[in-house]
Structures are given as structure tokens and as C-alpha cells.
Amino acid sequence: MNGLIVIPARMASTRFPGKPLVDLCGRPMLQWVVDAARGCQLGDNVLVATPDDEVLDYCRAQGIDCERTSISHPSGTDRIAEISTRRPADFYINVQGDEPLLNPGDIDACITPFLEDPSVEMASLWAVCPEDEESNPAVVKVVLDLSGNALYFSRHAIPFPRNPRQVPLRKHLGLYGYRKSALDRFATWSPSPLELTESLEQLRFLENGVKIKMVEGKGSAMAVDTPEQAEQVRQILQNRT
Q1: For residue 225, what is the domain's CATH number?
Q2: Which residues are within 8 A (CB) of 44 and not within 5 positions of it... i.e. 6 or more apart?
Q3: Backbone angles phi, psi at 180, to 5 degrees
């Protein structure tokens, strides 16, 4: 079965312009993400998707497979949907370009449902939510049905514990896998009501009837959304050496 890992990367981040190429201990953040992706079972099939000349120039100089995509895409999923029109594959794994501490094992966990079950159209990961992140709206939560599919994603701590929780509060880890058919349909749908309310693009799939298989993962120590977080990641990387 043919899968492709796609790393969407753009320089025009609202909170941190230029972050794909920010230096982290002598290497751009994007390089850390690419190296993590190359450590998984699809490591020979890694592609960077970007609208930016700076990212394309870096990737070409380092021998990283890359393609230019439209500057108008509102999300990484839209960017991958464009790539899928030119790069045929059975499924695509969306690896966020701001996860320099990503564990390759989590990428493998997201790949597994597609290898085991041909009916799976989309997959993602969850982990137990730490207590200090429960009320943080930047940490997305997910609730599952009894078959392990996502029922809903929210920035709120769901389910509300009117009674003692029967399962742990789960946070969503931002790795996604899609069949080509799901990406094709996504590109035809307008942003959906719940997606617009929560600002979570995965809700567009749920609102249009696509099941999302959820697998337990570990999660990285930190994603980078701000210069302050980049400095924290530098400290983590320095302590590893």
C-alpha cells in the first residue's frame, strides 16, 4: 500500500512569521520535523508542501522533496488536498511543520489504521490530557465512541464531569491521515458550522459524515507557535545532547 507523508509549511504565520526556518540549535525547525518523519515506516516518502520560495530553496538545497502549493489555502488539509491531485497515493499523513520534537512512533501509529482496515477513511491520535492543560483552549480535546472513532473535538474540556469520569480526558494530537477519497470530498465542502465555531478543520469531516479513527499516541513535548515556545524547545534540545 502506497502512503505519502506531507509536511505543510508556510512562512506567513500570524503569531510567528518565518517559523519553518527558525533556528533550533543550529538547524531550521523544518529540518527537525523532516528528520522525525524520515524515522517512521514511510520515511522514504516525505514531501514538504509550501507556497514560499524560502522554504522551497531550503528544501532543494538539502535534497528534501518539495512542491509549491497555492498561497490561498486556509489550512494544511487544503494544502494536502492540492498535493493529492498531483501525487497519487492510497493515503496521506499530515505532519505538522511546527512539531520539531515529534516522535516517529506517533506517525507510525497514525499510519497503522490504513494498513489494517481498508474501510478507514481518516485517522488521528489522542493522549491523556494533563491536568494543567484541561482548561487551556489551545489544547484540543476529543471524545470517542465505543469503536474508537471521534464523536467530537472541542477546545472545551469535554465531556463535562457532572459525574466522575468513566474514561480519562483525552487531548487531540495534531497528526492526521486521510484516504485520497476523503481529501477529494473535503476540497468540495464549504467550511462547516461547527468548524467555524471551534476553528477546528477536522470538524468539517465529522459534520459531513466521515468517521475519524482515533489511536492512542504519546505526543511531542511541545509544538512551536510563538518565539517563546521556540526558546523552550531550544532548551529541551540542548538538554538532550
Answers
A1: 3.90.550.10
A2: 38
A3: -60, -40
